[in-house]
Design a protein that fits this description.
mainly alpha, ABC transporter involved in vitamin B12 uptake, BtuC, about 80% helix, about 0% strand
Length: about 350
């Protein structure tokens, strides 16, 4: 009996030593890793987890690896999977475009819609939905017509802003002009709403609430390349953004062409914010709040770190918002949930000055 007890003690001691050694190796590995590496690994793992969870969450829980009926398989492949990809793309695009706008204007409350891209898209949709119903052309309210109108409106406003940007040397003036174009478009939308019939007005207001459910695989073929081109432009501007962060005079001292960089930033923002808005509608607060979250997590403002971190944080945050919208029987507007996350962060920024 004593022999068995001794052998049991030896085995248990070996297990304890093995566990102790594994814990020490893990702690040494974490200590050897840089803090930024740990942050990016955690954000990437969280993104994979939330993406899989977003597919399962809905009015009814569905698990992709379980035995599913043909209807359930169709729901996952045709509805939930593109919606999950749309949430990732939208979160990344809006966050990165918001980061670039905050750097360009050196304004912590600047967002991706500050140059009137969203207002231009809203004007295009209002002309099609409200104007179409007023003229008795009801088929203009289809999803295809709304998408084309939103693309046309956002591109026209973007082209006007980029044309003006070539002749303006001051970022503050460009900011004011972008806001004025947005105000003009919003005023025209309000005029159209005044004379709209209830059906047309309801269709337009539904679009302004924002939704990820309207993007299918056919829309994804257009949205994905547009967002990818915008992200590539943003990545290519990282060094220039770091120069602008310290001021235009410092950037010129580094040999940065301010006019060229500003034009490229406006173009990339138009592709990212406009490409998402035309398919999903305006999504509030993500582009304004997420860059501050990324800076706070990394404790730095270097764009080589904050830009990819903003993309990952934005994707994770919008996935959470999408799941909260989809839990009930009736889906909530995505902007409603994103505002509940973003507005407190903006209040905190203002209080912290």
């Amino acid at each position: 009996m004593y022999t068995h007890c001794f052998l049991f003690f030896i085995k248990e001691r070996d297990k304890s030593i093995g566990i102790f050694v594994c814990v020490q190796l893990y702690l040494y590995f974490c200590a050897a890793m840089k803090r930024t590496t740990i942050v990016f690994v955690c954000l990437s793992v969280l993104l994979l987890f939330l993406a899989g969870l977003d597919i399962c969450v809905g009015s009814r829980w569905l698990f992709p690896f379980a035995s599913l009926s043909p209807v359930e398989s169709h729901i996952i492949s045709s509805l939930r999977l593109p919606k999950m990809l749309t949430a990732i793309l939208a979160g990344m695009a809006l966050s990165v475009s918001g980061l670039m706008m905050q750097t360009l204007f050196r304004n912590p409350l600047a967002g991706p819609y500050i140059l009137g891209v969203s207002s231009g898209a809203s004007l295009g949709v209002a002309l099609v939905t409200i104007g179409g119903f007023s003229l008795g052309i009801s088929h203009l309210g289809s999803n295809i017509s709304i998408t084309i109108a939103a693309i046309t409106g956002s591109i026209l406003v973007l082209l006007v802003v980029m044309t003006v940007a070539r002749n303006i040397k001051n970022n503050v003036s460009l900011l004011i002009i972008g806001m004025m174009f947005g105000s003009i478009a919003s005023a025209l939308v309000n005029i159209l709403q005044t004379f709209a019939n209830p059906d047309a007005l309801k269709l337009f207001i539904t679009w302004t609430f924002g939704s990820l459910n309207s993007v299918g695989w056919s829309e994804m073929r257009i949205m994905l390349p547009v967002v990818c081109v915008g992200m590539i432009c943003a990545v290519c501007l990282i060094k220039s953004l770091d120069g602008l962060r310290l001021g235009e005079n410092y950037g010129r001292g580094l040999g940065i062409s301010i006019d060229r960089v500003r034009f490229l930033i406006v173009l990339a923002t138009g592709l990212l914010a406009g490409g998402i808005t035309v398919f999903c509608g305006p999504i509030a607060f993500i582009g304004v709040a997420v860059p501050h979250i990324a800076r706070g997590i990394l404790r730095t403002s270097a764009h080589r770190l904050t830009l990819p971190a903003s993309a990952l944080v934005g994707a994770n945050l919008l996935l959470v918002c999408d799941m909260l919208c989809s839990i009930g029987t009736y889906p909530l507007p995505i902007s409603t949930i994103s505002a509940l996350f973003g507005a407190p962060i903006i209040i905190w920024i203002i209080l912290k000055k």
